[in-house]
Amino acid sequence: MTDWRPTASPGVLKRRARMLADIRAFFAERHVLEVQTPALSAHGNPDPAIASLRCWLHAPGAAAESEYFLHTSPEFAMKRLLVAGSGDIYQICPVFRDGEAGRFHNPEFTLLEWYRLGFDYHHLMDEVAALLRELLATDLPEHRFGYHDAFVEYLDVDPANLDAPALRRLAADQDLDVDGLELDCDGWLNLLMSHCVEPNFPRETLVFVKDWPESQASLARLLQKERPSVSSCT
Hints:
Elements: H1 10-29, E1 33-34, E2 40-41, E3 53-57, E4 66-70, H2 75-83, E5 89-96, E6 108-117, H3 121-136, E7 142-146, H4 147-155, H5 164-173, H6 185-197, E8 206-210, E9 230-233
Parallel strand pairs: 1-5, 7-8
Antiparallel strand pairs: 2-4, 3-4, 5-6, 6-9
Helix pairs in contact: 5-6
């Protein structure tokens, strides 16, 4: 018989509710408007690294069922609001991603995303740090470095100078099981980042990794094209 009881205890539910209230108070103090956009869309996410969950609508009178997608983030809809003149906005919502399940991934989870007019990514990192310190009620230390510097510091290599075969050899040298894996450069870099770089980040520290490779800059402006813009965070 399936256990009907939820996994979240009343104490966890209360702490979660308090955290959401604190997030809303944080943005209200900064005059950032809370919005809610549709979770269902006629189009999926074009990001090749993120898969959309599909569903089918059976509308009365329709000749055939229509395919829809559950959003992987509210990014597209929120950017439409920005273009229409919404100003600074944020959203807390459930999002859905296919093919993701494990220790750090779930097919459904709650996402906080916000956009700030006139902020560059340095200002945005400042605000992320301020939000986390307020929610955690502690003054955690902070470490910011570039993607390239992270590989140099923890793996002693320049990732920009390595092709896919070299990255595969590097992964094998780090005792990763690479048998049968056929990945492109970004695939190997993601594997090395998640398994060999990130585990070495200092604990009890706010770590920001910036300046990611151009090939991984999905829906992001390239650094050399930087100009007055809208910055976002998820």
